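Supplementary Note 3. Input sequence used for the single-chain structure prediction.
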Amino acid sequence: MSNPIEGLKPEGVWKYFAEISKIPRGSKNEKQIAAYVMRKAKEFGLEAKQDKFMTVLVRKPASPGYENRPMICLQGHLDMVCEKNKDKVHDFEKDPIELVRNGNIMMANGTTLGADNGIAVATNLAIMEDKSLAHGPLEFLFTIDEETGLTGASNLKAGFVQSKTLMNLDSEEEGELYVGCSGGRNTTGTWKVAFENAPGKTTCTVIRVKGLKGGHSGLEIDKGRGNSIKILNRVLLALSDLGGRLANIEGGNKSNAIPREAEALVSPQPN
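The predicted structure, written as discrete structure tokens, is reproduced below.
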């Protein structure tokens, strides 16, 4: 399909999802997308501001007759996880995400799609633009660096947001409302490694695991999907019993993504 968003509803949401997919927005690289949101807010004649961390807040007045309704803040994060297949040529610092539609499924060509949390950004932009909606006073909060540090949310200052109620548009199941979160923690382990020289005239073998489905380490962790690093290490443990020696190993790029690819360089045991 030449236009992957053709016929999709709501049109405004998908229009903006396609637009922001053209803008590089990896974690800690949100300058362009933040500027885009500020520019659109100005286009719509809405009040907008940024803090020093680039988090954006936009305010939209209530529809006539709804001025006394409580103010609600709709929040999403501007950044996305940048992952790609090893054979995919893509620079997340400058290249747009290539949208691909397969029936009712929207995906990207060899990279992450950025629906987390691009769908919230697109939804907020569509609501900001739509003058036909009947609503109370609204705030739209676009935070930065959610994926690698919650930098935007953690550094919000008192008074930046006026709403007493905030809805975070960063959940997974349509029609479900979440009222809590278990949080997250990073752990770093360090081991000393003993190296030995490879024997002369050694022919090494590359062992590669690829083509797995991957997924979000939170949402899909219970789906039984293959983890390329774990699968590769099972092979390496078996080869170690046969005298194999590990020369190099690599796999996975993000702590919140189930790794789809991993590879190792293995040499035989010295005679």
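Residues 11 and 68 are 30 Å apart (CA to CA). The chain has a mean pLDDT of 93.
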